[in-house]
Amino acid sequence: MLHLEVSGVIPLACQRCLESVSFDIEVDNLLQLVPEGAELSQDELEDDTRDFLPVARELNVVDLVEDEILLTLPVAPRHEKCGLPGAADAGERINPFATLAGLKGKPN
Ligand SMILES: [Zn+2]
């Protein structure tokens, strides 16, 4: 068994304002090393308490840590609250849903 723990903070690009947004990395995985090509039983595949990691002869730990970090990263990182680039200068933001709400209930 290999217990892998990674923690830290990584800057990502916010997908809304494109500024930097900090993301807390927390990896805490239990990996069972199995020979490459080994057949796993259904019980083993359904066991959520650990993951199985096929290993040939040597394990590249740097690649493993990198992969585990990549798996935790959000697809579209965003600040909890932020605006579109330039929106702060453009005065009040227009909420697109407000326009939709105005159309609601009106006949076509
Ligand atoms: Zn943002």
Verbal overview:
The chain is α+β, with helices and mostly antiparallel strands and 108 residues long. It has one domain (2-103). It is 23% helix and 31% strand. The protein has three helices and three strands. It has a three-stranded mixed sheet, with helices on one face. Strand 1 (2-13) and strand 2 (20-35) form a beta hairpin. 0% of the residues are buried. The model has no long low-confidence stretch (mean pLDDT 83). Zinc ion binds at residues 14, 16-17, 19, 21, 78-79, 82.
* Strands side by side in the biggest sheet: 1-2-3
Give the ordered list of helices and strands. EEHEHH
* Tally of helical segments: 3
Principal-axis shape: elongated
In a nutshell, what does this entry contain?
The chain has 108 residues and is an alpha+beta fold.
Please give the structural blueprint:
Elements: E1 2-13, E2 20-35, H1 42-46, E3 51-55, H2 61-72, H3 96-103
Parallel strand pairs: 2-3
Antiparallel strand pairs: 1-2
This protein binds zinc ion.
Key terms:
31% strand; 108 residues; alpha+beta; 3-stranded mixed sheet; single chain; 3 strands; binds zinc ion
